[in-house]
């Protein structure tokens, strides 16, 4: 069944007031007609079976969705070159990320324009619809590394470091079953660098702020690949 993301403010009693964009998508793109059913998702965990009624939709009943990871993961990603971040948003949304915090590190080359955030949010919404997620991940506005790194309290924190002898992320997570089962309600934040990696200074600041250095294996992954590997490892360990 077709799904669209709506804003919870659009719901009053049992009626969803559809925006003209949503009407266009449902009637013209999906070719649904009055009386047809679709799923409305509020992006915060709720899905409703709904029925088209001209410019509104009637809520028939709430649906149970259990497609979220048991653990809330924030990726702190130093922005890669070109459109690489769009790929990261799309793939990591499919893999269950809760929040992505783009950062500008010393070796970040990209200077994102202000319209980029809206585009990234749209990509996250579409990927959440497509992958049947209950929630749309939050995409934060890009900020400087030094600002972001101090902002995570009550998180289990890791920074991916491409070289050296850091323990593997998988090994660290296996030793933290409470985190994986979410029994302490503690979120995880994992930082990955841009093409040039982190500077020594950035790694030092991260460690001072409680981040533990981790490896993703023996090969050097591209800046776009690393966050996807992080999410693959986490979805594997927390869902199996
Ligand atoms: N030029 C950097 C270097 O030589 O260290 C490599 C940077 S890598 C292309 C981009 C980012 O992906 C790194 O900063 C790191 O966060 C992550 N990364 C890539 N491969 C990794 C690995 N094997 N283990 C941990 N992190 C990795």
TrEMBL record:
InterPro entries: Alpha/beta_knot_MTases, PUA-like_sf, RsmE, RsmE_MTase_dom, RsmE_PUA-like, tRNA_m1G_MTases_N. Residues 68-235 form the Ribosomal RNA small subunit methyltransferase E methyltransferase domain. It is found in: Cytoplasm. It catalyses: uridine(1498) in 16S rRNA + S-adenosyl-L-methionine = N(3)-methyluridine(1498) in 16S rRNA + S-adenosyl-L-homocysteine + H(+). GO terms for molecular function: rRNA (uridine-N3-)-methyltransferase activity. NCBIfam families: PRK11713.4-1, RsmE family RNA methyltransferase. Belongs to the RNA methyltransferase RsmE family. This is Ribosomal RNA small subunit methyltransferase E. It comes from Calothrix parasitica NIES-267.
